[in-house]
Structure formats: C-alpha cells, structure tokens
C-alpha cells in the first residue's frame, strides 16, 4: 500500500502525542458546582438526582470544603425555604435560607466564589418566577412587579456576601433592574451572570423536585424561550441582556443547545456559561446504573463538548467528580 496519503493516526498513537495536539482544555477552574440549601438540620437525598443532596447549613459548608479541596472554587446556591408565599418573600429576606448560607460559607472560606441564583420560583407558593396578575382572564407572571422583587433579592444576596448574582427568571428587563439596584446600593463592582438564553425545557424535571419549584398551574412557556424559536430569538435575548449590563451570558440547558452556545460565542465577547442541567445529569446516572454507559468517559466527553462549543465555564452537578477524574489524569 502506498505511504504517500495522509496519516492522521500518527498523531494519535500514544497518550502523549494526543495531548500534544489537543485544542480543548478542561480544568476544575472551568466548573461551577450547583448546591441546594434548605432549613432543616440534616442533609436530604433527592430521588431523581443520585449523589445530589439538599444540604443543611452545616452540610453545605462541609461540601464546599470538599469542592475547594478538589480545586472547584465556584458554587451557585439555590434555596429551598420552609415558608412560601405569593410574593416569594423569602427570596429577598435578610434571614432567607440563601442569605444565611452565603454568610456561613463566606465565614468558612474567603476564597470561594459564591454565585447566588436570583429567582423567585423556589420561594412562591405557586411555583412561578414572580407575583401573579390576570391578563385576558388568565393568571400569568406580572413582569414589572417581578423586576422590583428580583432587584431586592439581588441586593440582599450581595449584602450577605455573594460575589455574583445570576438572574434566572427570564423577566424582560431583569438585568437592567438588578444592575441599577446593585449600583444604587454601592455594589457596582458585583457582576451579573445572566441566564440570558434559557429555554422552556423538559430537562428541568429533577431540579423542580430538588428545589420544590414545580408550577402549581400551567408552565413557564410564556416567559422561558421556545425550543423551536431559532437563532434569532437566542441572539436577541443575549443582546438585550448584554446591553442592559450583563457581565456573563448563559445558555440553559447545555447539551440540546450546543449549536446555540456556538452561535452566542461567535456573536458576543462576554464570558459564556453552559448549564449542564438536572435532566442531563439524571439521564447519565440512570444509564450508568443500568450498565449502559461508562460514567467517567461519558461525563468528560460532555464537558469537552461544552468547551468545544465555546463555553468558558460549565455549571454542572458532575463538578466534583470531574475535578477528581482530572486529578487522576
């Protein structure tokens, strides 16, 4: 056989040769670890998310320490309060569960980047992302009333010690409202990580059990994005948030929207986050439990896919496992 044709396999023959020509890198510094905190004294398992817990305050501090030891220095906190009401008042209460957890984690670890999810759905008794109003005889979220509460929530989270606020409610104008409130409160140095491109996805089911945020009626399709909306809708949402002062953009979910991540990466020079959501995590765990997939290979391949698509950071429940695997080589 002729030896004149190209032989790409020459560059893949050994691990060292493969490493020499890799374009994509992955490190614990690229990872953000999502954590649920609740008001109980004990950590609680979540049936739909094996290995993920609702943490007590003590459990959350301990888990952050474990993440830190593995090199994962960024976390995002979601609160699961005991009390819920129509306004979601525990989201912006000075002694709300997330605010208390931020203080406890900050007191223990000064070098952890604490990102606070800024939304109301975990805190409202109806499970929607803001107070309700009636439009055309139907209940829906009152967008502008939600903006005021989201802004209060962001300020209270930063006052407690959050380094970054991450609005996820998909209310029109939420980044501008939060940016103005932070600046007015003397927090102009605090960045906003916007869930700019967030779809009304079927991949959120396990999260809603974990956070207790399933809507009591209807769904969130009127404010989260249409999966069939296309690139123009995604670009418009990202552009609006960038113009309003977002410091990071996010695409959520991650795997079904790798193409969208690439489009946003090419259009904007802001740091870009991919959220590897609860449904993606649960599917891998179920397939691994059934003996269908190798967990380490599958998860690392997924993380590389996010990076290859253009994500600077990955929010993932696999974060601590990934960091451990990377340390093993």
Automatic annotation (TrEMBL):
Q: What keywords appear on the UniProt entry?
A: Heme biosynthesis, Lyase, Magnesium, Metal-binding, Porphyrin biosynthesis, Zinc
Question: Where does this protein hold Zn(2+)?
Answer: 119, 121, 129
Q: Where is the active site?
A: 198 (schiff-base intermediate with substrate), 252 (schiff-base intermediate with substrate)
What is a biological process (GO) this protein takes part in? heme biosynthetic process
Q: Does the keyword Zinc apply?
A: yes
Q: Please state the pathway this protein functions in, per its UniProt record.
A: Porphyrin-containing compound metabolism; protoporphyrin-IX biosynthesis; coproporphyrinogen-III from 5-aminolevulinate: step 1/4
Q: Which InterPro entries match?
A: ALAD (IPR001731), ALAD_AS (IPR030656), Aldolase_TIM (IPR013785)
Stated EC number for the protein is 4.2.1.24
GO cellular component labels: cytosol
Source organism, top-level taxon: Bacteria
State where 5-aminolevulinate 1 binds. 208, 220
Q: Name one GO molecular function term.
A: porphobilinogen synthase activity
UniProt-annotated binding residues for Mg(2+): 237
- Residues reported to bind 5-aminolevulinate 2: 278, 317
- Catalysed reaction(s)? 2 5-aminolevulinate = porphobilinogen + 2 H2O + H(+)
Q: Which family does the UniProt entry place this protein in?
A: Belongs to the ALAD family.
What's the protein name? Delta-aminolevulinic acid dehydratase
